[in-house]
Amino acid sequence: MLRAPLGIFGGTFDPIHSGHIYPTIQAAKLTQIEKIAMIPCYIPTHKSSASVTSQHRLNMIELVCQQHDIFYADARDINRGVPTYSVDTLNELRAERPNTPLCFFIGTDSLVNLFTWHKWQEILSLCHFVVCHRHNDEPTTVAQDSALQAILAKHQTSQYLDLHTKLAGHIFIADTERLTVSSSQLREQLKMNTKVEKFIPSNVLNYIHQHKLYQPSDDLC
Ligand code: ATP
Question: Which segments constitute the Cytidyltransferase-like domain (predicted)?
Fold first, then answer.
């Protein structure tokens, strides 16, 4: 007998925004998934791809978890202190939870890049994917990608119960609202001091202001 599926949501979350939060909650409702672990990736402090420390990114996630109890923060990748492939994190989770279907939430941009993920075939043997819509032009992008179409032909399901009755191997594309927002866009807007209230929860925005994150002259806070 399998346990209830666990959602997993990995990313940089630099910073976390409404495009991370609301499509994921909507997809979780559509698939009847009640818990989602947010797992921020570790980024070395000397690398320019994260503009604030891992601890700040984690703290901002914790603030979102306080408001949406479907989410909890899982700091395992940050705590390792070295960059980790998703496949390694998933192998660890699978060993901890042998009877729990694992459902990896991603945006369509990540689905389109699935082939570039380290050991992506192994990943599909460890978890399902729940895909949230992201960009308006994505139906064309997905339809024109013949390699992706071949994977979808093998793995896609429209039955959310497949995510509950099998441990891994399905791709469920959830009919979520498209929120065309990204962390990089928000980092630019914060640097230019333009309004971001629409896309960043107020407690996270207060945290950003309090710690003077994403300022014009920031290197790494
Ligand atoms: P950046 O702009 O810095 O590249 P990002 O906004 O894409 O960041 P990530 O933390 O890299 O955010 O994304 C983590 C996951 O969230 C990915 O699977 C991504 O596809 C998904 N995601 C991010 N933004 C959205 C969005 N607006 N709608 C749906 N999914 C999203």
Answer: 8-188
pTM (two decimals): 0.94
CA distance 219 to 29: 39
- Rounded distance between C-alpha atoms, residue 155 and residue 147, angstroms: 13
Nearest to 172 by CA among 108, 215, 93, 122: 108
With a 6 Å cutoff on the Cβ, whether 51 touches ligand 1 is no
Distance (Å) from CA 184 to ligand 1 centroid: 9
Q: Whose CA is nearest to atom 6 of ligand 1?
A: 182
Q: What is the full DSSP assignment across 93-104?
A: HHHH-TTS-EEE
Residue-wise pLDDT tens digits, 146-187: 889 999 999 999 999 999 999 999 999 999 999 999 999 999
DSSP helix/strand/coil, 68: coil
Structure tokens at 194: 């333009």
From 87, 92, 105, 86, select the one nearest 8 (Cα to Cα).
105
Contact at 8 Å (CB) between 42 and 84?
A: yes
Give residue-wise pLDDT tens across range 20-75: 999 999 999 999 999 999 999 998 665 555 579 999 999 999 999 999 999 999 99
